[in-house]
Design goal:
The chain is α+β, with helices and mostly antiparallel strands. 40% of the residues lie in helices and 14% in strands.
């Protein structure tokens, strides 16, 4: 009751947002890219935490992804096989950070190089959370999740009424 519940936005496989089948989708991709960039730029001020995940988030996806990557203050790079992928993630850090990302053994899952806002980098190991523990936490704290209508102040009942019921059989 004392402070708003933070909103966590997780974008997995970021590259998928930038792919287009043909030129007709170019405007839609650009709008999505701009909206995501605005969340990255302004979201923290409103308690929105943006996590962008992908295997290769490079400039070959377009100028929007480069601008988005520049807005990400902290970065995590798990084991990579090539220097280009480490460079995409960790940027212009100390070359030893890039070498360390490439040197993480395959048999040590969860180990990563973490770049912080201050330009320093650290070797870290993520904590393992079982599927059962994650489900338990989700059920335990589900009541703390605000509804979309509460967040936006909008009434979407009319819109939801237009969604057809799934067919049976």
């Amino acid at each position: 009751d004392l402070r708003p519940v933070p909103i966590v936005v997780l974008v997995d496989e970021l590259a998928e947002l930038y792919l287009m089948a043909d030129k007709s989708e170019k405007d839609e991709v650009a709008k999505t890219s701009t909206a995501l960039l605005r969340v990255a730029q302004l979201g923290r001020a409103f308690g929105i935490y943006l996590f962008c995940c992908g295997q290769r988030i490079g400039s070959d996806l377009g100028p929007g992804v480069t601008a988005l990557r520049a807005q990400c203050s902290g970065r995590i790079c798990h084991r990579v096989n090539d220097p280009e992928t480490a460079t995409m993630t960790l940027g212009d850090l100390d070359p030893a950070a890039l070498d360390s990302a490439r040197a993480i053994p395959a048999e040590t899952p969860g180990v990563a190089i973490v770049a912080s806002q201050d330009g320093q980098w650290y070797r870290a190991r993520s904590f393992y959370v079982s599927e059962q523990a994650a489900e338990h936490a989700a059920h335990t704290y589900a009541d703390r999740t605000p509804s979309w209508a509460e967040l936006t102040g909008a009434d979407y009942s009319e819109l939801l009424g237009t969604i057809p019921e799934p067919r049976k059989g």
